[in-house]
Automatic annotation (TrEMBL):
It comes from the Eukaryota. Keywords: Chloride, Disulfide bond, Hydrolase, Protease, Signal, Thiol protease. Tetramer of heterotrimers consisting of exclusion domain, heavy- and light chains. This is Dipeptidyl peptidase 1. Its EC number is 3.4.14.1. Residues 228-455 form the Peptidase C1A papain C-terminal domain. Its cofactor is chloride. InterPro entries: CathepsinC_exc (IPR014882), CathepsinC_exc_dom_sf (IPR036496), Papain-like_cys_pep_sf (IPR038765), Pept_asp_AS (IPR025661), Pept_cys_AS (IPR000169), Pept_his_AS (IPR025660), Peptidase_C1A (IPR013128), Peptidase_C1A_C (IPR000668). The keyword Ubl conjugation does not apply. Residues 1-22 form the signal peptide.
Length: 458
């Protein structure tokens, strides 16, 4: 009887999912998701490529209490960890099993209803990667529905974009207003539509309705960081470069894949003293990862992290970059796997400048995500900060998150201003040979709020 009831619920859920699961994501925050859940899990005999939409009969119920700040406690009293993944889903690891699912939502025209006490069907397996299953979660206490407007709905994105004159005006105003950094028109952006520029800046799935703030560093962390060098750059460590070349994501919201592969590439170099210098396939991520949304966006935590651990990544030549969504062709190339991954600070919302510095120094480059304002697109050199210069011709721009790779940090010799050194994926002709520097220590455009580390197995 119980099984029949659960299956019925699931059917309703599948029917809703079928027509709504396409547009912008849910807005479920820590406060909405923390609390007591029941996970309904299928038989643990699935293939790892299982399409969990049709998850089959529920065979197990697991009760888990998600507590502050990242404690997951199961019904037997075992303690594990959990984290939000943006405001779009959450991952739980307890009693030697790990679970990930997207939060449930319904889109009806411009209105998005987040159903934060429920998940879409997700994936679970032993921490040793055996016994795959599908599951979905229900919070024991129902939460109020939350409705927001899809910021991209009814925007006339396809037809036009800013003109050359619009770009020139913006650049002039930025350079008039301040002299910490220099703006210039970036030729390749001139002919793009708003929709294309949106992909270049991150893709609509990377829209973030609620950004966490950095947490204050502990004394212990500050003491450790006090022992680090004043400046540090993985591109030049005693004359040796551990960072792979700059690439170009083109017109595809795949920055998260470039940030993720860039991190794994650099860390393999670090871990093998540059005897292995792989370039990993970003197209494999765009085409094959169900933990991201192809050219509409995604998250390094799930790509360098969970996808890298569960499925592994392949060399570039195995699936060369095309810059558009496409069918996944499964190959037999050698796969590199991720051994460990985490949000820096231990969970989404636990980040700060000091934790980032330490992780960068100890393990290699780290993935970060920040808000791309209009002025950033025209960055040419210097230490970036948001100038406040906006232009109506760049509307309908909505702030989205762009994922990039922090490879170092330093202090400006003249002004004493602290900065991060960051690798972008807009080609070598953008910025400082494909890189930019950005103000450090003040969470500039959110760059110190969401950072990820992942350790590859060379
Ligand atoms: C999974 O199955 C559903 C329902 O049959 C289908 O609509 C969806 O396209 C499938 N997804 C993938 C990635 O195959
Ligand atoms: C969306 O919400 C608005 C305001 O609540 C409402 O007026 C409108 O009818 C809704 N649109 C749809 C398609 O449900
Ligand atoms: C997302 O949820 C948070 C917390 O409930 C709320 O503060 C924020 O306004 C929401 N964002 C949108 C766009 O509705
Ligand atoms: C790492 O590589 C450098 C440059 O090839 C070499 O000089 C150095 O000895 C290597 N270090 C180790 C520990 O092998």
């Amino acid at each position: 009887m119980e099984a029949i009831k659960i299956n019925f619920l699931l059917l309703v859920c599948i029917q809703i999912t079928a027509y709504c699961y396409a547009d912008t994501p849910a807005n479920c925050t820590f406060a909405d998701v923390s609390g007591k859940w029941t996970f309904y899990e299928s038989a643990r005999n699935k293939n790892k490529h299982e399409n969990c939409t049709l998850m089959g009969q529920v065979e197990r119920k697991i009760k888990i209490d998600l507590q502050y700040p990242n404690i997951a406690k199961d019904e037997f009293g075992n303690f594990g960890t959990w984290t939000m993944v943006y405001n779009q889903g959450f991952e739980v690891t307890v009693n030697e099993r790990t679970y990930f699912a997207w939060s449930y939502y319904i889109q009806d025209g411009p209105n998005v209803t987040s159903v934060c006490d429920k998940t879409s069907p997700g994936w679970s397996h032993d921490v040793t990667l055996r016994h795959w299953a599908c599951f979905y979660g229900r919070k024991q206490r129902p939460m109020p529905l939350k409705v927001h407007r899809d910021p991209f709905h009814s925007l006339l994105l396809e037809s036009s974009g800013p003109t050359h004159q619009d770009f020139s005006n913006l650049v002039d105003e930025i350079n008039r207003k301040q002299n910490k950094w220099e703006a210039a028109v970036h030729e390749p952006f001139l002919t793009k539509t708003h929709a294309e520029l949106l992909k270049i800046r991150g893709g609509k799935m990377s829209w973030l309705a609620h950004r966490p703030q950095p947490v204050p560093p502990t004394r212990e962390l500050m003491e450790k960081v006090a022992g680090l060098p004043q400046s540090f750059d993985w591109r030049n460590l005693g004359g040796i470069n551990y960072v792979s070349p700059i690439r170009n994501q083109a017109i595809c919201g795949s920055c998260y894949a470039f940030s993720s592969m860039g991190m794994l590439e650099a860390r393999v170099r670090v871990q093998t003293n540059n005897t292995q210098t792989p370039i990993f396939s970003t197209q494999d991520i765009v085409s094959c990862s169900e933990l991201s949304q192809g050219c509409e966006g995604g998250f390094p935590y799930l790509v360098a992290g969970r996808y890298g651990k569960d499925f592994g990544v392949v060399p570039e030549q195995c699936n060369p970059y095309q810059g558009h969504d496409g069918p996944c062709t499964r190959d037999t190339c050698y796969r590199h796997y991720t051994a460990r991954y985490s949000y820096i600070g231990g969970y989404y919302g636990g980040c700060n400048e000091y934790a980032m510095q330490l992780a960068l120094f100890q393990g290699g480059p780290i993935s970060v995500a920040f808000e791309v304002h209009n002025d950033f697109m025209s960055y040419k050199g210097g230490i970036y900060h948001y100038t406040g210069v906006e232009s109506p011709s760049f509307n309908p721009f909505v702030l989205v998150n762009h994922a990039v790779l922090v490879v170092g940090y330093g202090v400006d010799g003249e002004t004493g201003e602290k900065y991060w050194i960051v690798k972008n994926s807009w080609g070598e002709s953008w910025g400082e040979n494909g890189y930019f520097r950005i103000r450090r220590g003040v969470n500039e455009v959110g760059i110190e709020s969401i950072a990820v580390q992942a350790t590859p197995i060379p």
